[in-house]
């Protein structure tokens, strides 16, 4: 009988969309077994996903990912000071932490965002500090920028910016907490994805939010005439989206390099479409004939509020991204990924797959996994 190996890697955010895919990459390079913190409501989903990953690995040749104990699930919650792990043994062996768990929801209430994004991150940082880990990987977001007016790079963070919503503000505060630990000597790396959409090869996603609200609204209307809403200033704004596979591949690559310790990487599109170009590409992929109604922002917000709950509803919080003043650049990321073969594909090159998946899978939900 093979000796039982204690887990050296700890994950939050499994079985979420990004967490599941990144866990596969980590196991594939031989870093297992991995301990995953899972909230009780998602435990069965996590067990099913863990079986799928290990069974798929067993049919191939992916390092030690085919071991039955490669993924170990621990019930807990990052909102608890001890992560709910008082009775869990075997985690003193943890040397590396991947923290992905967060509330990814533009319309999230302040109290929930505070509990999960801010205090939850502080609790995971304490967990890592208590174990004197060798690596801490934190998934933030480009939108810690808030409504910064200008080009926002990896070198920016505390710029006196205002925020569109509680999601942005609490993710900003969470990254500040991580960066303070980094300044004090924690060997950490921060990854800031832009707006993450489905897989560029298959279109797969597990949540319809962000740009998907617009897509669903178009698909719910007659193909011979559909309508979208825009606001003045949208022609000067960019919508920076990146597919899941790029984000996961980039984090997997960068997290495996010693040179990434102490760095911040923005995983964004260096040449994103403007808002009108993004909408046009989405509409073209649906095959709908569509008109765009440009109306003042307060009126647009009122209209979306009144449409909420209908088949053509769009999350009102998305209206702030139609005239978002920030542009994102990623010089550190581009330099670090040079020679890796990893690049953000143009949105137009995979939008048809996103639309096709949404049409074939209308029952995918929009609720965040928290």
Automatic annotation (TrEMBL):
A Gene Ontology molecular function term of the record: alcohol-forming very long-chain fatty acyl-CoA reductase activity
Task: Look up the coiled coil feature and give its residue ranges.
Answer: none
Domain of life per record: Archaea
Q: SUPFAM superfamilies per the record?
A: NAD(P)-binding Rossmann-fold domains (SSF51735)
The record ties this protein, via InterPro entries, to:
FAR (IPR026055), FAR_NAD-bd (IPR013120), NAD(P)-bd_dom_sf (IPR036291)
Listed GO biological process terms: long-chain fatty-acyl-CoA metabolic process
Occurrences of domain Thioester reductase (TE) (ranges): 12-251
Protein name per Swiss-Prot or TrEMBL:
NAD-dependent epimerase/dehydratase family protein
The organism named in the record is Natrarchaeobius chitinivorans
User: Taxonomic classification, please?
Assistant: Archaea, Methanobacteriati, Methanobacteriota, Stenosarchaea group, Halobacteria
């Amino acid at each position: 009988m093979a000796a039982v190996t204690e887990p050296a890697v700890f994950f939050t955010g499994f079985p979420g969309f990004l967490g599941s895919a990144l866990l596969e990459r980590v196991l594939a390079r031989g870093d297992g077994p991995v301990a995953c913190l899972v909230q009780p409501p998602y435990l069965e989903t996590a067990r099913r996903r863990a079986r799928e990953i290990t069974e798929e690995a067993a049919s191939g040749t992916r390092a030690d990912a085919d071991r039955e104990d490669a993924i170990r699930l621990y019930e807990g919650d990052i909102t608890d000071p001890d992560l709910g792990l008082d009775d869990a043994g075997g985690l003193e062996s943890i040397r590396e932490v991947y923290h992905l768990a967060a509330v990814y929801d533009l319309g999230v209430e302040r109290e929930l965002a505070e509990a999960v994004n801010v205090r939850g991150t502080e609790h995971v940082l304490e967990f890592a500090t208590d174990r004197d880990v060798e690596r801490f990987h934190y998934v933030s977001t480009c939108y810690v920028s808030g409504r910064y007016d200008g080009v926002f790079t990896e070198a920016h963070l505390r710029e006196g910016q205002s925020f569109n919503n509680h999601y942005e503000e609490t993710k900003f505060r969470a990254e500040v907490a991580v960066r303070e630990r980094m300044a004090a000597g924690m060997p950490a790396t921060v990854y800031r994805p832009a707006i993450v959409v489905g897989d560029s090869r298959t279109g797969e996603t597990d949540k319809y939010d962000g740009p998907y609200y617009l897509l669903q609204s178009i698909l719910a209307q007659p193909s011979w005439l559909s309508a979208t809403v825009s606001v003045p200033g949208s022609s000067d704004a960019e919508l920076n989206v990146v597919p899941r596979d790029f984000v996961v591949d980039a984090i997997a690559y960068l997290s495996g390099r010693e040179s990434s310790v102490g760095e911040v990487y923005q995983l964004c599109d260096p040449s994103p479409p403007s808002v009108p170009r993004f909408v046009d590409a989405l509409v073209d992929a649906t095959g709908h004939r569509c008109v765009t109604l440009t109306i003042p922002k307060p009126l647009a917000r009122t209209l979306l509020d009144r449409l909420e709950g209908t088949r053509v509803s769009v999350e009102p919080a998305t209206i702030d991204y139609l005239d978002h003043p920030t542009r994102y650049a990623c010089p550190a990321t581009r330099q670090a990924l040079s020679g890796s073969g990893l690049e953000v594909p143009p949105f137009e090159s995979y939008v048809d797959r996103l639309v096709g998946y949404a049409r074939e899978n209308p029952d995918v939900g929009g609720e965040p996994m928290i």
